[in-house]
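the two lines:
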Amino acid sequence: MRCKNATLFVLLLGLLIVPAFVVLATAVDRMSLCNLEGYPGETVEMQITLEGDSEEERSGYWYTHYKEIEGDDDKMDITAWITTEPNDYTIKQGETKIFTVKIKIPEDAQPGLWGATSKEAAQEGHSGERRTYVIFKDAITGGNVYSGLLLPTSINVLESQTSPNPLAPVINFVKQNIVTIVLSIIIILLLIRPLLRRKKQVSKG
Amino acid sequence: MISKINKAENKSLILAGVLILTATLVMSAAVLAADNDASQEASTTQAATVSIVGKVADTAITTITFPEGAASATISTPYNNVDTVTDAQVVAGSDSEPVVRLNNTSGGTLQAWLEITTWSDGVAASEDYELVTTATTNVAVVDDVLSADGNSASVDTSVTIPTTEYRALYLELVLSALSGKSGTSTLTVLGEAA
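prediction for all of em together
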């Protein structure tokens, strides 16, 4: 009898000590891809990392979804602009995988916000303003029950005439390093001058 | 004459040397400035997919099976591979039990979406769901439409699952009028930041 009580006590104690086991699936490093910026004709790229938290290997893939709401204009569905590389994946516990979401803005896209009705769409309590989503989902390999996340996606298409000057990086570099560049030029000139003089002297001699 | 040239050369070289020193100092200052740039980091709470687990145990489930039924019958006793056929879903006015539970392991509240792919072989006429708190045990009717025709569908349930909490999912399938058929479909539970 005593032995039974002791066993029961140990079992109950064990239940208290053993931490709650939490089944995790797949984690992602961002919950939205909103307010990206780009010019017509440009391809905007974003990297997303998935981390496998499930004990079992999971197989999944990426796709897009448009949440159609009556009265939407044609700026809300940008699913055709979006691709994800790689599209299919398998992920194990502790493994991380990086994916690139590419949004190719058509040449004729009008300026403005596309994919959501407002710039606040990514914020808490603004799900009603989201229209286009990038989705990943996976299931335990061989299973028929998937789990995934919807990542709202929007992009602000900028006016094409304000597209960046291709020399802008060079100009910025010169601006930022003007002192170094001027000093380098003076040093080079000062070093070259005596050499030229010596050359002249030799040629005269 | 030669000494004048040498003096000028020396002057130039000294000046160049001074400037090189200055430039070195300027560059190292720039490097130091760069090193001192404060980097900013921000992190949000971890986002993870919803865990689909058994009726009682927190064991991830792999499949949900609807048992065989007569043509046009309503099948309300699906079961998962963890609880098995011996502990199927119960739809009743009291002591109802879901087919699976959904657990939000994300850092924030998630809004649940459900998706199914088209049932193969035309086996299903429609599929419905109920998504309730686990404390709700009087689910006698499962009538929220998941797919009105057995074809692929995506539904925003508008049900939110706060972080760490569970919700109970009930499913019901109406078989098509075709007899002697069996088919498959996949179920997806999606989470959206609320």
